[in-house]
Amino acid sequence: xxxxxxxxxxxxxxxxxxxxxxxxxxxxxxxxxxxxxxxxxxxxxxxxxxxxxxxxxxxxxxxxxxxxxxxxxxxxxxxxxxxxxxxxxxxxxxxxxxxxxxxxxxxxxxxxxxxxxxxxxxxxxxxxxxxxxxxxxxxxxxxxxxxxxxxxxxxxxxxxxxxxxxxxxxxxxxxxxxxxxxxxxxxxxxxxxxxxxxxxxxxxxxxxxxxxxxxxxxxxxxxxxxxxxxxxxxxxxxxxxxxxxxxxxxxxxxxxxxxxxxxxxxxxxxxxxxxxxxxxxxxxxxxxxxxxxxxxxxxxxxxxxxxxxxxxxxxxxxxxxxxxxxxxxxxxxxxxxxxx
Length: 340
Known about the structure:
Layout: H1 3-12, E1 22-23, H2 26-32, H3 37-41, H4 44-58, E2 62-65, H5 71-75, H6 113-129, E3 134-141, H7 143-151, H8 153-162, H9 165-187, E4 193-197, H10 208-228, E5 232-237, H11 245-249, E6 255-258, H12 264-271, E7 276-281, H13 283-288, H14 292-305, E8 312-316, H15 326-337
Parallel strand pairs: 1-2, 2-3, 3-4, 4-5, 5-6, 6-7, 7-8
Helix pairs in contact: 2-4, 4-6, 7-8, 7-9, 9-10, 14-15
């Protein structure tokens, strides 16, 4: 089996010849290729070259094309900082008051430079690998997370508890439209999978009840957009998601990329029959800061816990730091390749 076939099989719950591996390694790939994040975010060609070099070095099965976590925010007018050696970031929102949603111009994300860079990078990678390697195109933030960036995190948490249902829905519908636009544009690149992150919607920030009301329904709308276009979909939420796993199933996502803080046995018992699990080695404490022996131990623990399900793709629980030692990443992948 090639990489595309392994990951495609895992999404269908079919047996693979080896454990599929798909990395969230864009920062590490850029550093190993000798370029800054500023160079990376501005050049589709360099983005593609980074991932091609990384696949050549580590021999994994699927590429997760990521750029940063604020591209959609920038596309809807949120002020963005662009550090030379780190991914872009936001500090403040662009919506001073929740009621100001009525004054926002309709989102048109295709006009934003960094949306086009992201799209072209995915096109280049899909053209290069065809159906030899699986291409997962991240589409930045899901609606709840994008709303948090537009209002600012603290304001959005207060809004979630005190805002009127009508105002909350108006902003989340606006954000859903922006997310949907990005997904529809990304599908045209020929990518194999779409994904979004919705980390502020996790239990470490809001209650399960609030997740069901303000996050899950809008996540589901994005999943439906991807499925209507014939593309698989992965949802990523950071932190311990134990108490919302069953709620997340309502989105209809094909796969969940989950943090190492979520109990692996809870994951297995809740989703292994229906939904593919992607993850979840600790990217910082184990892969970036641990020893090769500790990486091997944690990888074996994870593979053993999930050995009775075909719906599994090995990855870190979130993005790998740029400082991750190559020997640690190789150990994780080699351990998976030799696991029986």
